[in-house]
What we know:
By secondary structure, the chain is α/β, with parallel strands linked by helices.
Amino acid sequence: MMKLPDFEAWAVFAKVAETGSFARAAKDLGLSNATVSKAVSRLEQRLGATLFHRTSRRLSLTDSGQSSLEAASRLLADGETLELEASAQSVTPKGLVRMAAPMSFGIAHLGPALSDFFALYPEVSVELSLSDQLIDIVEDGFDLALRISALEDSSLLARRLCPVRVMLVGSPAYFDRHGRPEHPKDLARHRALFYTGGRSRDAWRFEHPRHGQYAISVPAPLRANNADVFRALLLDGQALAMQPDFMAWHDVAAGRLEQVLAEWTPPAIAMHLVTPPNPIRPARVRVLMEFLAERLAKAPWLG
């Protein structure tokens, strides 16, 4: 089986050649004299060639050492540069953040948020993937994801940002024609726009502080995996829909939509930032997380 190059030994060799002394190289590298000597000897044994002529007074390169020095010095320099750049990035936010988010929320709210973020952190870029499908952020190589749900147990790290209230809404014209339901059972006489991306694909489920839980299937002329398509039909008085507050609040505040059965709430969900299990994150990821947390804590739909 192929062995990896002994990068450490090559770097030590380059430093010894640069300083002209095993002792000075050890001091510069923060290593013991014995460690430096063993690294060079290990490399010579692996190559089957001597790299230095050693006398009590003088150290000089052999032909093999001379022919290897340029590449070894470049390896040492590249390693030092890599560490400096990585260290700088851990302090100064720069580079790419790969992020996933739900489609509707991303379109409505992440664009304006990211515009303000880039004004603060111009050296950070974001690759944003919008989808209502649950993706594997570790397997797909994402740095973080926004998730709107009741999270299941997993090895991922999650930070709760804000609650998400789901409202049953319809237009005033719809309610004038079909009446306002007073109990979930009344919904059997209504029409639904049903979001198929949630956990329940066949019924609306409610909870009441005194009356407990209730589930009901409602006739649905339209079922869709994205709730943006429902808005036009809601405003046109075609049916009712369960809509998250960040999508419906503006129309409710303006009177274009009306919430009903406010005391009967769907199971509680929240918005979370989810990251891979490793708690050590680059500065570019940390600042985006903190920015979104602060931004969403002041979201207008939270009232």
